[in-house]
């Protein structure tokens, strides 16, 4: 079978560690006619700005699946799980000195600076029965609902595009990409991947960052899969 679309993470997957775009990856994504969907833990305006700069479509997944946009200048589909995330933040604020990132733009999750004991925070929330998870993307800490992730976002995107999730190739680097790779038809982990991606990836690149994404795409092309 040939895959019909690509869903790709941004930070650490098509960017370097400093978040500058890896042009090797951009050239690879733009050198074919398969639609590309950006999927990020970052905010919607960041995802749309990146899509404009890269030259791909406006259908994007933002806030780790909490927001799905049908396109540029459209009304996004926003999940409604912020209340419990805020309650979790309020509890943890009594234990740690926390700093929110982009609070005026976040609609479905709370994102924090990486300067507190993550495992202890997870245990506190578990002990209090919260249905949220805390994930570390190496760029920030995210408090998010367990009900949404990049996998649920990809399922919604596939529906909007008239495709099935298995029609997609998914490319990522971090623990928040696991569900997206699981629901896609083919998963690529770049060389700087988190260990959790190894067990769900169909292809693990030897090269890191955007060069790894390009390596994975070249692997598929060499087998006429895209």
Write the layout of secondary structure elements.
Layout: E1 5-9, H1 23-30, E2 36-39, H2 44-54, E3 60-62, E4 67-69, E5 77-78, H3 82-93, E6 110-112, H4 118-127, E7 132-136, E8 141-145, H5 150-161, E9 168-172, H6 178-183, E10 186-189, E11 203-204, H7 209-222
Parallel strand pairs: 1-2, 1-9, 2-3, 9-10, 10-11
Antiparallel strand pairs: 3-4, 4-5, 6-8, 7-8
Helix pairs in contact: 1-7
Catalytic activity: 2-phosphoglycolate + H2O = glycolate + phosphate
Pfam family, one: Hydrolase_3
EC number: 3.1.3.18
**CATH architectural grouping of the largest domain:** 3-Layer(aba) Sandwich
State the separation between the terminal residues, measured CA to CA.
9 Å
Strand content: 15-25%
Derived structural class = alpha/beta
Radius of gyration: 17 Å
Indicate the percent of residues in helices.
25-40%
Number of helices: 7
Secondary-structure element order, N to C:
EHEHEEEHEHEEHEHEEH
Total tally of structural domains? 2
**What is the CATH class designation of the largest domain?**
Alpha Beta
Summarize the main sheet.
8 strands, mixed
Tell the overall outline: globular
Function: Catalyzes the dephosphorylation of 2-phosphoglycolate.
Keywords: Carbohydrate metabolism, Hydrolase, Magnesium, Metal-binding
Binding site for Mg(2+): 9, 11, 173, 177
Enzyme class: hydrolase
């Amino acid at each position: 079978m040939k895959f019909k679309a690509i869903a790709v993470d941004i930070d650490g997957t098509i960017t370097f560690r400093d978040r500058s775009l890896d042009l090797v990856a951009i050239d690879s994504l733009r050198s074919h006619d398969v639609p590309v969907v950006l999927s990020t833990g970052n905010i919607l305006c960041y995802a749309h700005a990146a899509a404009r700069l890269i030259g791909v479509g406006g259908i994007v997944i933002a806030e780790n699946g909490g927001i799905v946009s049908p396109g540029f200048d459209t009304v996004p589909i926003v999940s409604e799980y912020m209340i419990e995330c805020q309650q979790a933040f309020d509890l943890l604020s009594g234990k740690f000195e926390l700093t929110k990132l982009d609070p005026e733009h976040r609609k479905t999750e709370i994102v924090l600076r990486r300067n507190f004991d993550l495992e202890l925070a997870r245990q506190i929330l578990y002990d209090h029965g919260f249905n949220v998870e805390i994930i570390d993307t190496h760029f920030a800490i995210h408090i998010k609902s367990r009900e949404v992730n990049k996998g649920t976002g990809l399922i919604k995107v596939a529906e909007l595009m008239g495709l099935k999730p298995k029609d997609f190739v998914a490319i990522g680097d971090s623990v928040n990409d696991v569900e997206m790779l699981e629901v896609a038809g083919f998963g690529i982990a770049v060389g700087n991947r988190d260990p959790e991606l190894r067990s769900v990836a169909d292809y693990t690149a030897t090269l890191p960052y955007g060069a790894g994404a390009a390596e994975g795409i070249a692997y598929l092309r060499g087998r006429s899969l895209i």
